[in-house]
Each structure stands twice: as structure tokens, then as C-alpha cells.
């Protein structure tokens, strides 16, 4: 299967070159690449039967990327790219072909990649399992009026594991989407889409499914600090064997509204909603509505530096499982700094407290109330010319009412990258 995948990538690459290069022309293009070295670390601390447990996985890795591009992204364009990752725990290789063909009012594109990952025998991963993953995305887009375009997209994903386990299973997933975009005055955009998805699982056909979904987005930008964004997504998923896993409806929505500024200050509201409704509820899969809201007051210190501060609210409601219901109150402090390509920083700190509907003191209670601290940091800095460093940190300690429920999860990544 690996050889067939590489042959398919090579066929697409050669076909793309024939489309882009005029007859008799020289194959002139640009070669680029990067070398990245660093490490990823994940640590989780929790308690099992009154014994503290610490899971830690740290992997040092080096990634080499080499690519070739021909043409202009605004015209006909071809990108061939290969990546190799060498880590202490695993090895990974990826090949990619990205091709765009344009005419006056139409565009056709193919984006395909093949990844093979293998784990070392001494790997510290809890469930190492070699796999091959193949992705193919094609689309045809046509402009039918000024600012209005339609796009037909097909996405194919194939995942092939070396071993079939309780957690890992092979599948073929294909999704066909028809979407439309309307741009008005470069400040307001509308997006709508409908899709059909089919996921086939050869070893567990009873959980294979097909689904219909629809999505809509609205985005408006008044100026650099004032903007509005709404999105709504709905899905109806139908499983092959509804007795094994229930059909369901899902509705996901989000809103970011920052319409008011006065001098150096601004005000905004951010909200996300997630809801699932099952035809047949079980202890594991039940109807619920979860909502998160932030009210943010912003201070624009300068063009590069912004501070945000405000309260946060969240809740989960379920008629079926009252043990899972909760309310959450906290605060969020956010800092964004952007000095062009030299330094970029986005950091947030969110302390708060979660209360479950069922009192967390009984011996049979699943969840107990807790105080949390959520810290997220993204940072990137240019050290010298094409030499950059990148950092990511996600640290979430939980202090529970029942001491044995305390848990802490930390994800940290740091790398140094040189591009050419």
C-alpha cells in the first residue's frame, strides 16, 4: 500500500507539471526548505486508588522539509514537498503535491499527501501503533458574479494501522461539499455550505456511518479593532447499526462580537455553543447543551500590543445525566503582541471554579467541584534572518473538592527552525 501511495503522488506531480509548463519550456522553479529541531512534552498527574500517578512523555525530534514550487499562487501553481521527522519515540515521512490550475473565472486544485509513521520498539507511548495516512482534496471553483463564487470539494482520508486494537481501527472517510462565498466591499463576507460524508470502517462495519451537514458563516470588519463573526454548523449522523451506536443531531455555533471602541478601549463578547441530541440515549452518549461565554474589555496600548480582561461563564445542561451538569464562573486575562515578522505572542490566563449539580461529597459521585487555572501561551520570535524559535504551553491544574480527584495536564513544545 505504501508503494501504491507514493506512485499515486508521483503520477499527480507529473500530470500537474504537464498542465503548468508550456510545451518546450524549461522547468524553472524555486527550491525551499527548513530544518526544525526541538521537543514536545506531555505530562498528566492524577490519582488512582489513593496513589499519585504521573504520566510523562517527552520526545526530542528533528524535522527536515524540502520543497519545490513552480508558477505563481495567483495563477497556475505547483508545489512538491517532502518531510522527514526523526524523533526519540517515532519516525515519520510525508510527501505532498499541491496543484492549482486557473482560468479567467474558474479554478481547479488538487492537494494530496501521504504520511507513514512508525514507532520505535522502546517507545514510551502507551499504545504505539504504526500507521499509513493518505489525504486527497480536490475542488473546482467558479466565479458566477462579481464577489460571488461557488465551489465543489471532495475530501478523501484513508487511515491504515499496522495492528487493529480497541482504540485504533482502519477507515476510509469521504466528504463532498458544495459551498458558496459572497464578498462585499472586502469588509463583509458570507459563506454557506452543505456536505455529505461517508465513513467506512472495514473491521467494525456496525459503526460505519454517513452524515448530512450544513454550515454558515458571517464576517464583518469595521476597522483593525472592530469586527463581528458568526458561525453555525449542523450535522445529522446515521450509523450502519443504530443498535450499536445511536444516530444523532449535532449543532455547533460560535460568535465573536467586538463592535465598540472608544479611544484606546474596546468591548466585546465571545461565545461558543455545542449541543448533541441522540435518538437513543445511554450512559456514554446522552443529550446535552454546553455553552461558554466571555465578556472582554480591551485596552489597545499600541498598534502592536493589546490587553484583554473580563469574566467568563460556562454551563452544561442535560436532562439525562444530571451528574454531568455544571456551572462555571471565572475570569480571563489576555495579552497579544505582534511586531511584524520579528515577534509574535499570544497568552491567556483563566482562573475559575466549576460547580457540579450533584454534590461532590458522596462515595458514588463521579465528578467533584474544582478550582482551575488555565494557562495558554503561543510565541514565535525571529532570532536572526531565517532563524526562528516557536513555543507552545498549555497548563491546566485542577484543585478538586475531593482531594483524590486532583489532576494536572501540561503540554509544552519548543523548537528552533531555520528556513532557506
Please tell me about this protein's structure.
The chain has one helix at 2-20, and strands at 30-48, 51-71, 77-87, 90-102, 106-119, 131-145, 148-161, 171-184, 188-200, 209-223, 226-239, 248-262, 265-278, 288-300, 305-317, 326-339, 343-356, 370-384, 387-400, 407-419. By secondary structure, it is mainly beta. It has a 20-stranded antiparallel β-barrel. The two termini are 33 Å apart. 7% of the residues are buried.
**Helix/strand/pairing class, anyone?**
mainly beta
State the helicity in percent bands. under 10%
Number of strands: 20
Order of helices and strands: HEEEEEEEEEEEEEEEEEEEE
How much of the polypeptide forms β-strand, as a percent range? over 45%
Poorly predicted runs are none
Largest sheet: 20 strands, antiparallel, barrel
In terms of quaternary structure, what is this?
Answer: single chain
Radius of gyration: 25 Å
Chain-wise SSE layout:
Elements: H1 2-20, E1 30-48, E2 51-71, E3 77-87, E4 90-102, E5 106-119, E6 131-145, E7 148-161, E8 171-184, E9 188-200, E10 209-223, E11 226-239, E12 248-262, E13 265-278, E14 288-300, E15 305-317, E16 326-339, E17 343-356, E18 370-384, E19 387-400, E20 407-419
Antiparallel strand pairs: 1-2, 1-20, 2-3, 3-4, 4-5, 5-6, 6-7, 7-8, 8-9, 9-10, 10-11, 11-12, 12-13, 13-14, 14-15, 15-16, 16-17, 17-18, 18-19, 19-20
Amino acid at each position: 500500500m505504501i508503494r501504491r501511495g507514493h506512485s499515486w503522488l508521483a503520477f499527480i506531480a507529473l500530470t500537474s507539471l504537464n498542465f503548468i509548463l508550456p510545451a518546450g519550456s524549461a522547468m524553472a522553479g524555486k527550491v525551499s526548505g527548513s530544518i526544525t529541531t526541538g521537543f514536545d512534552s506531555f505530562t498528566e498527574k492524577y490519582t488512582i486508588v489513593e496513589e499519585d500517578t504521573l504520566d510523562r512523555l517527552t520526545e526530542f525530534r528533528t524535522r527536515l522539509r524540502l520543497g519545490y514550487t513552480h508558477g505563481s499562487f495567483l495563477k497556475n501553481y505547483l508545489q512538491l514537498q517532502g518531510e522527514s521527522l526523526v524523533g526519540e519515540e517515532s519516525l515519520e515521512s510525508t510527501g505532498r503535491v499541491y496543484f492549482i490550475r486557473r482560468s479567467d473565472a474558474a479554478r481547479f486544485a488538487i492537494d494530496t499527501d501521504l504520511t507513514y509513521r512508525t514507532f520505535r520498539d522502546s517507545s514510551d507511548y502507551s499504545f504505539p501503533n504504526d500507521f499509513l495516512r493518505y489525504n486527497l482534496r480536490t475542488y473546482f471553483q467558479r466565479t458566477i458574479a462579481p464577489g460571488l463564487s461557488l465551489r465543489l470539494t471532495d475530501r478523501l482520508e484513508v487511515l491504515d494501522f499496522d495492528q487493529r486494537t480497541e482504540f485504533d481501527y482502519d477507515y476510509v472517510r469521504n466528504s463532498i461539499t458544495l459551498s458558496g462565498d459572497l464578498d462585499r466591499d472586502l469588509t463583509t463576507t458570507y459563506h454557506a455550505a452543505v456536505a455529505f460524508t461517508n465513513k467506512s470502517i472495514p473491521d467494525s462495519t456496525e459503526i460505519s456511518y454517513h452524515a448530512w451537514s450544513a454550515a454558515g458563516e458571517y464576517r464583518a470588519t469595521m476597522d483593525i479593532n472592530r469586527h463581528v463573526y458568526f458561525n453555525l454548523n449542523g450535522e445529522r449522523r446515521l450509523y450502519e447499526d443504530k443498535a450499536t451506536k445511536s444516530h444523532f443531531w449535532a449543532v455547533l455555533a460560535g460568535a465573536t462580537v467586538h463592535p465598540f471602541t472608544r479611544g484606546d478601549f474596546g468591548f466585546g463578547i465571545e461565545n461558543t455553543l455545542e449541543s448533541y441530541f441522540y435518538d437513543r440515549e445511554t450512559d456514554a452518549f446522552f443529550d446535552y447543551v454546553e455553552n461558554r461565554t466571555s465578556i472582554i474589555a480591551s485596552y489597545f496600548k499600541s498598534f502592536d500590543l493589546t490587553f484583554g480582561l473580563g469574566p467568563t461563564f460556562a454551563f452544561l445542561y442535560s436532562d439525562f445525566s444530571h451528574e454531568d451538569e455544571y456551572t462555571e464562573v471565572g475570569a480571563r486575562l489576555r495579552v497579544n503582541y505582534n511586531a511584524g515578522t520579528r515577534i509574535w505572542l499570544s497568552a491567556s490566563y483563566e482562573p475559575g471554579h466549576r460547580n457540579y449539580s450533584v454534590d461532590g461529597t458522596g462515595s458514588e459521585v463521579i465528578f467533584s467541584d474544582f478550582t482551575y487555572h488555565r494557562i495558554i501561551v503561543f510565541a514565535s520570535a525571529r532570532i536572526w534572518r531565517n532563524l526562528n524559535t516557536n513555543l507552545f504551553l498549555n497548563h491546566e491544574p485542577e484543585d478538586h473538592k475531593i482531594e483524590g480527584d486532583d489532576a494536572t495536564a501540561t503540554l509544552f513544545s519548543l523548537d528552533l527552525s531555520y528556513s532557506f
